[in-house]
Write a structure and sequence with these properties.
The complex is a heterodimer of chains A (113) and B (109). Chain A is mostly beta strands and 113 residues long. Helix content of chain A is 0%, strand content 49%. Chain A has no helices and eleven strands. In chain A, strands 2, 4, 5, 6, 9, 10 and 11 form a seven-stranded mixed sheet that branches. In chain A, strands 1-3-8-7 form a four-stranded antiparallel sheet, with no helix packed on it. Chain B is built from no helices and ten strands. Chain B is globular and about 40 Å long. Chain B has a five-stranded antiparallel sheet, with no helix packed on it. In chain B, strands 2-10-9-4-5 form a five-stranded mixed sheet, with no helix packed on it. The chains are: A mainly beta (113), B mainly beta (109). At the A-B interface, strand 5 and strand 10 of A face strand 4 and strand 5 of B.
């Protein structure tokens, strides 16, 4: 069974440019998470979806970050405009509805110059 | 909000020795206590978890013990191997996981 798929794996952009990350969760997983992981730290939740509904976006910086999961499967996380401090790894995870175990993708490593 | 701390931040052991990592948390409502392993360039992977109605759980060389009264739980790895080298995160929570700052484990052959 395929795991969580993320693309791209790496992205280098200049500050003020837009960037988007894509995630395909494990088949059948209703819950999808986006995390931010700074160097040397643990993942921090940005947003959690139950199907297509964002049920927790309290930590998402809404002035520049947006996310969508239109059909309740794939999801896209966007930053516009990117800042130097956004350089980090962006992780996507998924889980079955009502279960705590989260399965993580490999992440997208973003470098903003 | 939840405060999660891990100790030690780095740990070096000889192959075959045991390793113990402790996680303390502040939210008494936490009822799920997982440990994740993250290798370089990969996402975290669940290695073991425990729920608040159980005090200890073991899976081959890995065990987790929970002291809910004291609000801490620990990861125990016995007979360590070089492939155990990674960063380990605790992530206590309920429906939302709060990750610790991680412990870098190095196992020397």
């Amino acid at each position: 069974e395929a795991g969580v798929v993320q693309s791209p794996r790496y992205k280098i952009i200049e500050k003020k440019q837009p960037v988007a990350f894509w995630c395909n969760p494990i088949s059948g997983h209703n819950t999808l998470y986006w995390y931010l992981q700074n160097l040397g730290q643990g993942p921090e939740l940005l947003i959690r979806y139950e199907n297509e509904e964002a049920v927790d976006d309290s930590q998402l910086p809404k002035d520049r970050f947006s996310a969508e999961r239109l059909k309740g499967v794939d999801s896209t996380l966007k930053i516009q405009p990117a800042e130097l401090g956004d350089s980090a790894v962006y992780l996507c995870a998924s889980s079955l509805a009502g279960e705590e175990t989260q399965y993580f993708g490999p992440g997208t490593r973003l470098l903003v110059l | 909000g939840e405060n999660v701390e891990q100790h030690p931040s780095t740990l070096s052991v000889q192959e075959g020795d045991s390793a113990v990592i402790k996680c303390t948390y502040s939210d008494s409502a936490s009822n799920y206590f997982p440990w994740y392993k993250q290798e370089l360039g990969k996402g975290p992977q669940l290695i073991i978890d425990i729920r608040s109605n159980v005090g200890e759980k073991k899976d081959q060389r890995i065990a987790v013990t929970l002291n809910k009264t004291a609000k801490h739980f620990s990861l125990h790895i016995t007979e360590t191997q070089p492939e155990d080298s990674a960063v380990y995160f605790c992530a206590p929570g309920t429906d939302k996981l709060i990750f610790g700052t991680g412990t870098r484990l190095q196992v020397f052959p």
